[in-house]
Every structure is written in C-alpha cells, then in structure tokens.
What we know:
Elements: H1 12-25, H2 40-53, H3 57-82, H4 85-96, H5 99-105, H6 111-129, H7 134-150, H8 156-164, H9 172-199, H10 205-213
Amino acid sequence: YQIxxxxxxCDEDITALAVKGVLQTGFPEFPSGAIYFRSLLTTYxxxxxxxxxxxxxxxxxxxxxxxxxxxxxxxxxxxxxxFSRHVGLLAAAILTFSYWDIEFARHARMYEALAFFxxxxxxxxxxxxxxxxxxxxxxxxxxxxxxxxVHILGVVLSAVYFALLFIRPKNxxxxxxxxxxxxxxxxxxxxxxVLIDFGFANPNAQFRVAYLQKFTTTQNFVPPDAG
Length: 227
C-alpha cells in the first residue's frame, strides 16, 4: 500500500546512500568515505533494482516487497509439509495480514530478506535431515550464509545446526557437516562483525586514530605509575 508514496524514513536513508555508493563506485561507500558492510547482499540487490528502474522510494523498497511475498509462499509450503494444507493456509494468512510484515514489506531495509533466507534455510535443513534428501542440506548451508550476509543475526543458524546434532542420531559424515557449518557460520559472523564495526571508520588517517583510541580508553582507569 502506497509503497512509493511514502518518503524515506528511519534507516532507509542509510540504504539509499549505500546504494548510491554501489552505483557510483561499485562499493557501498557513504559520502563520508565510510564503507557500509551491513547487509551486503540486500544492498547489491537493491542497487540492481535501482539500476534497472531508476532511483526512487519505490525501487528502493521493491526487494523488500518481493521477499515478503516469497516468505508468505514459503511459510505456506513449509507449514503444509510439517502439518497440513489448512495449517499452511492459516499460517500464510496470518503473515499476509500481519501489521509488522506489511510495515517491513514497505521498508527499504534488510529485514524481509532475513526472514526469507532464514526460513528457507530451516526448510531446507528439514528436508535434508528429516526427509533424508541430502542435496537439501547443502542448500541449507548456502542459504544460511546468504542470511548472514543479509543480517548478522543469521548467525543464529549456527546454533540451530549445533542443536540438530542432539535431536536425532546422525552418521559421522552428517555430524561433521553440521559441525563444520556451525563453526564456519560463527567464524564468518565474527569477521562480519569486525568489518561492520570498522567499516564505519572514515579512511582518513586522523579519523582512524581517533576511532582506535576507543579501544584504549581502559588506560584512563589505570592509575599512573607513582614512580
């Protein structure tokens, strides 16, 4: 509803600046020189939307709209497989008319994409582990990394894979795969956290010095040497 009529609000301006940076330099670089490492996947997808259809509130929000619709369909498919067609339709209807989902479907940010990739990863893990369709387990791993590059909260899937080790018996190969995926996601999340934190630092050397000083503030609490 009025997806292109509303002005940019809240953090949408951050997405808009990152997209402009991608279109101008190939990197999500702000006018300040800071690099926006958050949500790299959705930033580039949004840049593609803007590159094709032009820069506007509508084109910035189109990816969120499509991910919202895809999540509704995926929720139906997953719920139907877990329970029944009626449960699937009910779950899809609840999400369709959810105030929060409608709001974020009109928001040029990463949250709808996170919901889609996170749910798709769980669905794929279910088919890979419970239904024993091996190729789906590897799809789940790939989707988990996609979720992580949408939002760092995708790291929760690392805990999911670790927990799955204790739910039902696994052979050694499957156990190794789950452990490897869990560890790889956790390590990648740590790398992303550092990149996101340091990415907001302006390339200017003086700014970097000031930025790094915050890591040495504990020295202020150490009394000077009496000697």
